Amino acid sequence: MDNGLLEVQQVTSGRLKGVHLSILSDEDAGKLSAMVVGTVNEVSDAALGLPTSNATECTTCGAKNSRDCEGHYGLIKFPYTILNPYFMSEVAQILNKICPGCKSLRQSKIKNDHSASSHQPRKCRYCTGQSRAGYPKMKFKVSTKDVFAKSAIIAEVSEALVSKSSYGCLASDYWDILPKDSAQDHSSQPPNKRVLLPAQVYEILKDVSPKDLERFFKRKNLIFLNSLLLTPNSARVREFGQRITVDETTKVYRKLFDFRGTPNELSARVLERYKLSKIRSEKLSNLQKAYEKQAGNDSASSSSGLKNIKELLLGKRTDHSFRMVVVGDPRVKVHEIGVPFQVAENLLMNDHVNEWNWEKLMPCCDYMLHRRGNFSALRDGQRRTIWFKDMLRAGDSIRRPLIDGDIVLINRPPSIHQHSLIALSVKILPINSVLSINPLICSPLKGDFDGDCLHGYVPQSLNTRIELNELVSLKNQLANGQNGRNLLALGQDSLTAAYLSLQDGVLLNKAKMQQLQMFCSCMPMLPAVIKSESGARFWTGKQLFSLLLPRDFEFTSACNDVYIRQGELVSSSHGSSWLNDNSGNLFECLLRHCKDRALEFLGSGQEVLCEWLSMRGLTVSLSDLYMSHDSKSHMNLLDEISCGLREAERLSKASLLMVGCNQDFLVDCSEESDYMENFLKERILIAQQTVPELFHASLSAAKAVFRDMQSLAYKYSDSGNSFIAMLKSGSKGNLQKLFQHSMCVGLQHSLAPLSFSVPRHLSCASWNYQKNLPDLQTSHGYIPCTMIGNSFSAGLNPQECFVLSLTTRDGSFGGNADIPGTLNRRLMFFMRDLVTGYDDTVRSCYGNQVIQFHYCSEEMNATNVDGRMGGHPVGSTAACAITEVLYSALDQPISVLEPSPMLNLKKVLECGVKKSTGSKSASLFLSRRLRRWANGSEYGALEVKNHLECLPFSDIVSEIRICYSKKTNSGTSVSPWACHFHVKKEVANKRRLTLRSIINALRLNNKLNGAKSKFDLPKLHITSEVCSEADTHTDSTICISAALTESIHNIPDVDILRDMIIPALLQTVVKGFLEFKKVDILWKEGSNCSKFPRCPSGEIFLRVVMSEYCERTKFWSTLIDKCLVLRNIIDWERSHPDVLLDYCEAYGIDVAWQYFVTTLHAAISDTGKSILPEHLVVTANCLSATGEFAPLNSRGLAHQRKETDTYAPFSQACFLNPSDCFIKAAKVEQIDGLKGSLEALAWGQTPSIGTGSQFDLLYKGKGHEPAERTDVYSLLSTHVASDKTNAKVKPHDRKSIASYHFNSKEQKISLHKMLAQHFTVVGIQKVSRKLKRILKEYPVNRLLNEEDRSTAMMALKFHPKLQDKYGSGILDIKVGRHPEHKENCFFLVRTDGTEEDFSYHKCINHALEMISPDKAKTHQPKNNKVAPNPAVIVE
């Protein structure tokens, strides 16, 4: 990897300010092309770059491999001029704006125009649109896919206008305004339609005013095309070994040659080429479109284009990274990461040499010299080969291996939250193939040790290392950016040890206390509390825990009975919630008290507690699953479980009978009909699996009993049960799983509907009995719900195993598993460029627009102080915080009968999406004055529900009969056939209905609510006379009869009653309003009422659902009008529509903004997570920056950018449909200023966040001008103790080698020391090969450059006759021709002008004799003469 230090190329530097998007014209294509392609064989010509099948060298640039040649463009010239396929719609628009006869703008389209309308002829037949004379208006449009693939313009006249002509057809000269073309055949076309050629379009547009054309085209030369740019071979040709393949683009290019068709057919082929763009979305099948529509993913349709955008523009490759499996190691510090030594030596870090880091770099230099013999360094932009350490100079840049203490950036994908990026310190470990981290940092990384991988990135610049250390190091991320609590806490074994050590009766003798105190942070030993008769002293576990706390630390947790005074744990309860990640826990208080020093407490605390646990011992085995080893106690446990199961079943049945339609079962069921009673009970249990109300009632009752049963684990478990210890400490597992394994699996219900039901008792008899029951008709399927009485340790029967596999199967999320990722991507595109300014405002990087005037208000009291720094990416942190909540909601599976917190949060975030379908709802809150009376709110809610809810006639009818009446008067027109509707009086009274109100409603709504009926119903005679068909139920039943007063021809009256009258009357609304489908009475949790202390913590409210008969835009106003009679019992200040857009329209953006923040906070709380309020405020301000809430999709982003006058086509293209976005921006020639972070990173710029954020210079006083730029090498050299600029970093006190004769004893000792310290056999052999290469590459009499000269000078020091060769002094070295041997060799140029040669073989051989004499023998020159290879010549 050291080969990366190549010579720096001197190129012109500049700053990229923007990207100008434009459509390529013929002139631009000609300038870019390297050749004009004239034949099919030249499509892959060698002049277009490599690879190619007919050449091994690029004929344009001379490159011999594809790595050195990026390719060259070609140009294909067309035989015809065609229309630009990108501007087909614009051409059709401007043709419709002008008159084809006089070429002037139509007055009906553009008024008050001064360019052409002033001289428009008044008698133009096409302008006036004389339909009767045979000259109706002509309309232009783009051809369909079947006609030249949407690449031609069609002129068409409406058939309705043609029919208005006096002759019923167009005038004979109607199409004469179009130029004639002999090759064009109109016989196959309708007389009212013409397909225009590009030349005909040109004839119409050539006389149009240029000012009019500028309204549609930025440049007129873009309308027509005469050529097409041919992409290089590198973009179309692929090389697989010796095989060359071409893609579909090359095949389309070949179709353009030897073309014999019409210009429109040529346009279709050019359009086919444009559609083969890599950033264009692929066409999806109908099945894929249906899936995307169901999933609500608008970005999947362009997934192929976005993938290529990511690979071509967004993806960045780096050689300074690693990816490995991670394991846990508590011996590694919390802020460290253990890296295998084999990996560390191959990961190189760029470092500059200076006086302060020389001692640290010495071991690295020794290692690289020992391993490779030399290494490279950059000095003044040139590469230098370093053979020994003394060759280094201040300011040199070297690439060294990783060492202890280096900082690396760690990422555990996917990066769904802020703390998934952490900078850790490197610890080199003698291990292989895995990374090691402390188990305490698993929480921020959201990982574990079951095969998870970590990605690591090695920073290469000093600025990067400083930013990582100051921004994302672990000590600066101790506060959770999502909720402001502590990010780290004790966990796993350390948390279990903390819980066990704080138990009463834990004592430690002096030896153990001293052993554990070694791991503490220099705290004195507390006085012993117990002294035995033998004189031994003991300390408690609380004292051991106190040694870990600061001396001035105070902490109180009253609910856990924990008190810490002056750093000493005074008392603690048996629980450990104050040690877990709860609000107000110990570590959160430590973080506020001692900031980053809390990390020291965690590190030392883990070491002490794990050491104590290893002394005590902790084993987990299957025996811990048996709560009690005493047989009698175990039998009592089984009896209590059996009683609990019976109690759960009894309460579940009772709850089912108390729900709505089943309440009458207790009254109607007779004592004698035992079989009927069992049959009805079984049917109710089956109906429980289909009706949501029954399901919830049964589930709630059973869950309450099982919660009480789970507490038996604590009652019957032994004191030494390891499972119970871990459960109480909160380190591992949960009580429900232990209950299922040890005592009872319990209640199980499926989350997805099935096609069959499950019996209550899982036995063969129950299954056989249920098969004989008739099936219930249900459209939603069954939700199995049953109880499993056995435990996993006792074993399950086949029926129980089958039901367990159904209720615990995967796929509970269905098509919603991608919701968190999709919303995360959308939120990031909206919010990633929101940063805090230095004035504490929140601004957008696009135009520095103010989104929020103050980031963190005093009421928020946020603990995240980083948000107050200028440039802090508060938008990204807010999006990550919400995304983390969405991913955590995946742990709560989606059920068809229970609301999903994740879907509710998704609904809130997408509240700005305007929907034309679907129902709306509104929330009505009751007046607080109703609380003065007992159950006042309940009665008020029922009153509102009865007033608004739509009650159809079918809900109260118990029986329908069609009867023939014998008492029919011959003088009346009433039909003898009548339908009788029987209504129970009890039901009518319960619904507060009277007979007269029902009859009046049926008479007024004679047209089936007037909405869906496509025909008028016949007139009816509706009466409530005494019905003889009511039989014995006359006293408890009322009858309403309806008879026809007129008949329909050829249709029997019975058929009319059965097929028309009965369905119509059953849907008649007898109470409430047709606009409201349903009214639910719900409960909302809230704070306690201060005025009425005994009122509950919450209130009743009503949810009104709109029906399909209500107009969507008038739902809220209609609801207000219908509630005028109840206005005194409804609190209209708090009542609101549930759709945010309606809320905004009704009350304004300010009230809607507050409602959005409230509902977003409530939706997040439903998931069980908390979030900082500043994240909610930033999200609300971002989505409502334009004065209305933007939809969280691509249209919303585009609309928001348009309203704020900021155009970012590159960012918009990366969001959705990249090809369409780029084409749209190129048509209007937009300039992307690369202001966003996404664009900046893609184009190699510094994003405007963090240290690269913008700021305003408010004051500039004299005397504070910025200093001049200083060269980094000169700056580093000034800090080194040396007189020369290029002085050595650490000069050694030694005498010059050249000042002594080689045969002197002192010189030999100096050389031996030098060789032993700086050189190896491999290094000397590399020097020999390099000198040989220099002789071959340099021409005669050419002086060596600085690097090669230093190599030759280093070899010269080992010459046996160094003093003779040195002479008066060496001035330079060159390559010359030896006069005797006639071969190239080195010459030393002396200071006195003489030259002398020397054999570099003698230097190498003598150096090898000092280190390895065996190697020197193989390097001995022949015949003891001048070496046959070139020798070094000294001048």
From TrEMBL:
Keyword Transcription among UniProt keywords: yes
Limits of the RNA polymerase N-terminal domain: 221-502
An MF annotation (GO) of this entry: DNA-directed RNA polymerase activity
Catalyzed reaction equations: RNA(n) + a ribonucleoside 5'-triphosphate = RNA(n+1) + diphosphate
Superkingdom of origin organism: Eukaryota
Renumbered residue ranges of the record's region Disordered: 1416-1435
The EC number(s) this enzyme carries: 2.7.7.6
Keywords annotated in UniProt: DNA-directed RNA polymerase, Metal-binding, Nucleotidyltransferase, Transcription, Transferase, Zinc
InterPro entries with a match to the protein in the record: DNA-dir_RpoC_beta_prime (IPR045867), RNA_pol_asu (IPR000722), RNA_pol_N (IPR006592), RNA_pol_Rpb1_1 (IPR007080), RNA_pol_Rpb1_3 (IPR007066), RNA_pol_Rpb1_3_sf (IPR042102), RNA_pol_Rpb1_4 (IPR007083), RNA_pol_Rpb1_clamp_domain (IPR044893)
Annotated Gene Ontology cellular component terms: DNA-directed RNA polymerase complex
Top-rank EC class of the record's enzyme: transferase
UniProt family annotation: Belongs to the RNA polymerase beta' chain family.
Cited function: DNA-dependent RNA polymerase catalyzes the transcription of DNA into RNA using the four ribonucleoside triphosphates as substrates.
Name of the featured protein: DNA-directed RNA polymerase subunit
